[in-house]
Design a protein that fits this description.
binds adenosine-5'-triphosphate; alpha/beta; 6-stranded mixed sheet; ABC transporter domain-containing protein; 9 helices; ATP hydrolysis activity; ABC_transp_ATP-bind; Rossmann fold; 10 strands
Length: 260
Amino acid sequence: MEQTLLEVSHLNKIYKRKGGPDFSAVKDVSFTLAQGETLGIVGESGSGKTTVAKMVAGMLPATSGSLVLNGQAMESRRSKDMKRNIQYIFQDPVSSLNPRLKIKDILAEPLKLYFNLRGEALNSRINELLDDVGIPQSYRDRYPKELSGGQCQRIGIARALAAEPSIMVCDEPTSALDMTIQSQILELLQELQRSRGFSYIFIAHGLEVIYTISNRVLVMKQGEVVETGATAQVFHSPEHPYTQTLIQSIPKIELPYFEY
Ligand SMILES: Nc1ncnc2c1ncn2[C@@H]1O[C@H](COP(=O)(O)OP(=O)(O)OP(=O)(O)O)[C@@H](O)[C@H]1O
């Protein structure tokens, strides 16, 4: 059994809405994430996937519940090292990069913040990161708008890698990209996982993506976890009627090896 890296217990999120009733977006969500594992989160739009992901990444405060990383409780004000350790890959690669910064400066930010790199050490680390994600070093001086969507997502991945995290939270990282680019980005993420051993929390609308890359799956509906288990088990013998409906909606043509 792999070592547990993250323990999420009884997580809740209530959004306060001005002039309307409060909205309970995440209800009593618990799960664990092991080192080197990919946990896929699936569920219809509005089921609370992004809210869970943002609470895990410390981008949104939880209303209640606990998050324990490497045996240490993560308080609402996280230490710099805890922030470094969980990085987020965004759905929209272009808008997630500061348009006023050159690629080298986007990558320099986490390197300066977390590792205090300067000068030549900083420069060569930026080049290494560009190599790691398959972007030519000559792109250092370009701005995000001079890159394609897929290239921007590679920079988003390099920026996350720069922090040397143990967990990457990927919130639909390929859904804004063309099909061929999607599979290239997925391959890159898988290759990086193999070489660095980090863990992913992976949200995707396309269930075939989740099927391909996840070890375990969490199925969410209206803020709750309705089913969780090993990917093959959940996809081949779903127990909850909601999961059964989700799985049946996958076009057979895309998963010819699928048994219903
Ligand atoms: N800041 C907010 N204030 C109020 N309600 C919100 C806020 N953010 C999200 N919600 C609501 O919380 C619910 C869960 O949203 P969330 O974005 O987590 O769902 P999701 O499963 O990620 O959806 P999608 O697949 O469309 O991205 C939705 O009903 C959404 O409208």
